[in-house]
Write a structure and sequence with these properties.
about 120 residues; alpha+beta; 4 helices; 5 strands
Length: about 120
């Protein structure tokens, strides 16, 4: 009986480390601030707070440019007044050539902050 106990415990411990912890992350909304994830093989996402507005990016180059200028091109952004966390203005990077990216960015914001956009 004991010879089966050790492999069984090892399996339980190994599977416990592989459990999906996204449910724990989605329990409480995120706190607005400087945040970045993705890049490489996964889609890029970043957000920055500036002048009580939350700027959201889907392209690393646009985000890096914003880091230095603190300005976003009005032709390539969408302003959602009062739609962000804590009713702040949300400014989202847009690209007319990539509407899927725009939807992905809005979906990520909505999931992180429990918003309806």
């Amino acid at each position: 009986m004991h010879r089966y106990l050790i492999p069984a415990l090892f399996t339980i411990i190994a599977l416990g480390g592989c459990m999906d912890d996204r449910t724990a992350q989605t329990q409480t909304p995120a706190t607005p601030g400087s945040f970045q994830m993705g890049g490489g093989l996964s889609p890029f996402y970043a957000e920055e707070l500036h002048d009580n507005r939350m700027y959201v990016f889907g392209t690393k180059s646009v985000w890096e440019k914003f880091q230095t200028t603190k300005d976003m091109d009005p032709l390539n952004s969408r302003r959602l007044i009062g739609k962000g966390p804590n009713k702040m203005t949300l400014i989202v990077e847009t690209t007319k050539d990539e509407p899927g990216k725009d939807k992905r960015i809005l979906k990520t914001v909505a999931e992180r902050y429990k918003l309806t956009l």
